[in-house]
Design a protein that fits this description.
mainly alpha, two-stranded antiparallel sheet, 4 strands
């Protein structure tokens, strides 16, 4: 990651944090910045627990999105996939769909993860092998997967209340706490460690970064770019399924028409805020973690300040716009430097 991208993203983070912190401190009755922060609802145990749970649930699929962005691609279907995966999982538990047999929750999770891998391979095949634009493929998925989930449920909510085999242990495992921390946050740390190894310590990570920087050059150097690109989408889809499990059990039901709406944009914003270039070839796991955390902290402050929750979409839009501006500025600098060298 170059110097400008580090400074640009850091400046963007500091701007938002400073802006909302000032507003937050002005809306508290406590005197003094430190005292107002300590006595605020933001640092209450309940809010921190809720925030860490959100970071865990959003962070898992944001890591998958980050890998796709680093490869030079994009996945706009993540939110709709989470609606579909949540729907399929509840059908597996309840056996209430004619095409989907009911089963205990352990094999249900295995089947769901296998299904998500197949979806990811389908994306990878269309994008890497058939050479269809990632934007088009995943935009079709954004519409199609949600429509499929709505069709399966007749556009009504589905829950796990009538689970054919019961879900003993599953709900407490995914929505409870482990070592005093929300299970979703612990799972996020575990997934982060795996993705960190894949991106920064394995051959796959080196190939993925090379693919994102220059696919043609990577191919000439002997890298199987099609396989690496497809694997990025497979991992993204699997992590979306893992997040879908936590979201589905946390909300206790899935309403396909609204479940997971705009989640792909939150993932993109978190990755961009963490330093991932939308052109590909740049990004770190630590950056994605920090970007997602900062984004959710800002949204949390919006809610605590009493603003309409829809205002958080403005923050997301500004973050994505800022990331695009950073990319354009880098391209402009590169072109200018090249012209000067030629001259």
């Amino acid at each position: 990651m170059n110097r400008y991208r580090k400074e640009g993203c850091l400046a963007l983070v500091l701007f938002f944090v400073a802006f909302w912190t000032i507003l937050f401190s002005r809306n508290t009755e406590a005197s003094g910045f430190l005292q107002s922060l300590i006595e605020s609802r933001f640092l209450s145990l309940r809010n921190l627990e809720n925030l860490s749970r959100q970071v865990g649930m959003y962070g898992i699929f944001s890591l998958g999105m980050g890998l796709v962005i680093i490869s030079g691609g994009i996945d706009l279907s993540v939110g709709s996939l989470m609606a579909l995966f949540g729907t399929v999982f509840f059908f597996l538990l309840t056996g209430s769909h004619a095409w989907i047999p009911g089963m205990p929750w352990v094999p249900a999770i295995i089947v769901l993860l296998a299904f998500s891998a197949i979806v990811g391979m389908f994306h990878g095949w269309l994008i890497a092998k058939i050479r269809m634009p990632a934007f088009v493929v995943t935009l079709c998925g954004l519409l199609g997967y949600r429509g499929l989930a709505q069709t399966m449920t007749h556009d009504t909510a589905i829950g796990y209340y009538d689970a054919e085999f019961g879900i003993a242990g599953l709900e407490s495992l995914l929505t409870g706490e482990i070592l005093g921390l929300p299970a979703a946050f612990i799972a996020f740390l575990f997934v982060s460690a795996i993705v960190y190894y894949l991106l920064h310590l394995s051959v796959f990570g080196r190939y993925l970064l090379a693919l994102g920087r220059n696919e043609q050059a990577a191919s000439y150097s002997g890298i199987n770019t099609k396989m690496i690109m497809a694997l990025a989408y497979v991992i993204c889809s699997i992590l979306a399924a893992v997040s879908a499990l936590f979201f589905a059990l946390y909300t206790a039901d899935v309403v396909p028409s609204i479940h997971g709406n705009f989640y792909e944009l939150y993932a993109i914003a978190g990755a961009v805020l963490g330093g991932c270039s939308l052109r590909g070839g740049e990004g770190t796991v630590i950056g994605i973690i920090l970007g997602t955390t900062v984004l959710l902290v800002l949204q949390n402050m919006v809610n605590l300040l009493g603003y309409d929750s829809s205002f958080s979409k403005v923050i997301t839009a500004l973050v994505i716009l800022g990331g695009v501006l950073v990319d354009r500025f880098e391209i402009w600098k590169l072109v200018t430097r090249t012209k000067n060298n030629v001259a």
